[in-house]
Amino acid sequence: MPARLSTGRVAPPSVPPDQTYCSISAYRGPVHPDSPISATLVAWGNAWLAGHVGLDEAVDRLERAAGPQVVSTEVTETPLRGFLADLRVEGMTALRLALPAAGDPLGLTGPAPFTVAAVDAGQAATAVLSGRCLGLIPGPDRRGSSYSGIRWAAMPASATPPDVPSLAEAEHALTMSMRAATDALLSVEGPGRAQPSLNAADDGLAPGYPARAHRVAALTARLASVLRVADERGLTSGQVAVRREAFLDLDRAVRRARVAAHNAITEPGSPLTPGRPAGTLGTPSPGSRIRRSRP
Q1: What is residue 200's predicted lDDT score, i.e. its pLDDT?
Q2: CA distances (Å), origin 172, targets 72, 201, 249, 260, 292
Q3: Which whole-number Å values give the CA distances from 83 to 48, 62, 117, 248, in the listed order?
């Protein structure tokens, strides 16, 4: 008989790495490419695990950003709030962000079904538990004419830590990439046009993250907006090639810096919680509140 958690819900089964927790067919395609919902889940989920915010506040932030959230496995569909609560009881210690692109599986270490779905979506979150990991892939959830939310497909993820840069390494690489991109773009003559503005942008992080992470995340948000509006009209094929190469390198650095910023709260030596020693991330606090979502 499946184990029941203290929340009253049936525990998600522990599965061997070679078995599928959720069939890839349950993944219903990517959310809008500009949606940062996986980053939001990682930032606010980690802030909750570290004790900086309550579960209600974290999930409310996600639902304000993208509507109702559910998690689908092969056998169940569970509101995200309850699913996260159950994972914490199972011993979830952190959430990691993945922002892969074709040929660059940033933040991923397999297995193949999870990697394929994450690359297709351009994003994923990985829940870190004792001895195993669980991947979460966001997809649109539309029911009828008025319901629009996010359906997270849960599937096994490798427990091997991904090869991602530290926050300091990512910030340095981003600075160097910005300089290289600026030099490349200044070498391209083209029709006069207004340059995209690097206005202030929401860094997307939650309370509890170090100041450096907020700074880096804010910069990546501004640079990402510039990359989205890059205009190649009126340029020769050679000029287009130079710009694209510069933007590809910058996009790679932006994705790495964004991943590092969102994972910074779990880096060794990070101030996970005021007055709480490192290594207790994921331990439920006595006063933590869990509010049940409406189905």
Answers
A1: 55
A2: 39, 20, 14, 12, 43
A3: 14, 14, 20, 36
**Whether 263 contacts 209, CB under 8 Å:** no
* Residue appearing with tokens 């962000």: 97
- C-alpha span between 150 and 138 (Å, rounded): 6
Phi, psi of 220 (to 5 degrees): -65, -35
Angle at the Cα of 267 from the Cα atoms of 160 and 290, rounded to 5 degrees: 90
Altogether, the residues listed in the chain come to a count of 295
What is the DSSP code (8-state) at residue 233? Answer: T
Q: How far apart are CA 54 and CA 224, in angstroms?
A: 30
Q: Is the pTM of this model over 0.90?
A: no
Asked if 272 and 186 touch (Cβ cutoff 8 Å), the reply is no
pLDDT in tens, 270-290: 644 334 443 344 444 434 444
Other C-beta atoms lying within 10 Å of the C-beta of residue 35: 18
pLDDT for residue 142 is more than 70: yes
What tens digit of pLDDT does each residue of 163-199 get?
999 999 999 999 999 988 887 777 665 554 445 455 5
Which strands, in side-by-side order, build the sheet including 132-143? 77-79, 69-72, 147-157, 132-143, 124-129, 94-98
The three-point CA angle 141-162-206 to 5° equals: 55
Cβ neighbours around 207 below 10 Å, total: 13
